[in-house]
Structures are given as C-alpha cells and as structure tokens.
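pasting for ref. prot 1 ->
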Amino acid sequence: MITRLAWGELWSNDDLTRRERSLITTGILAALGREELVLHLKTAKRIGLSEAELRQVLMHVAIYAGVPAANHAFALTKELGCGEEMS
C-alpha cells in the first residue's frame, strides 16, 4: 500500500513537480526528525535542488518546527555534501 500510494500515486501526480515534492518532503522529514531525511537529501542533490533552495526549506523548518530540528537537518545536509557552505 505504501509503495502504491507514496511512490505511485503521490509522486507520479502532475499537480506538483518532482522538485516541489522533494522540497516539501525534505521539509516535513526535517521537521519531524525522521531518518528518511538522509535518503531525501541525497535525492534532492541528485535531482539538482540548489543549496539555496535547501537552505530556504530548512529555514522554514527552523521557524515553523523549531531550531533543533533545523540544526539537525542542516548538519545532515552538510555531512552528505548537499550544502557545503550551510551552517
């Protein structure tokens, strides 16, 4: 069911682009502190999301979900090479 809904119907829907979905998913996972964030940060890098785009997502996380959640996500982003100059 999860594969069919999440990877099938949700990600294949044309209402949002893959980039938009990646930004949303990254923000949600960062806010919730989920381990799947690593996978989605790698995907964000692979599909070409910029450091500036990821920074903005994580700044939203800081404001709306809390600084500790955002700090953790910033650290993971830097560790994975998705944002070399983020801090």
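and prot 2 ->
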Amino acid sequence: MIKAFLFDLDGVIVDTAVFHYKAWKRLSNQLGFDIDEEFNET
C-alpha cells in the first residue's frame, strides 16, 4: 500500500535544468541545427 509519494515539480528538490538542456541540444542537432547554453538560458 502506498502511503505517500514525492513529486519534484521542475527543480524544487533536484535541479533538472542541465538534463533539459542536453535533451533540447540533442533534438536540435538531430534536426540540423545547434543551440548553446546561452541560447538555452534565453
């Protein structure tokens, strides 16, 4: 029986920004263009 669970809403407990950037960078590369960290922060 589950008594509770923990849900991290977009970086409240764990900073996931680097993983989002890596995923967007990979997708952009597959589509034929590149994004850098500066662009990602805008």
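The helical segments are 17-30, 37-41.
Residues 11 and 17 are 7 Å apart (CA to CA).
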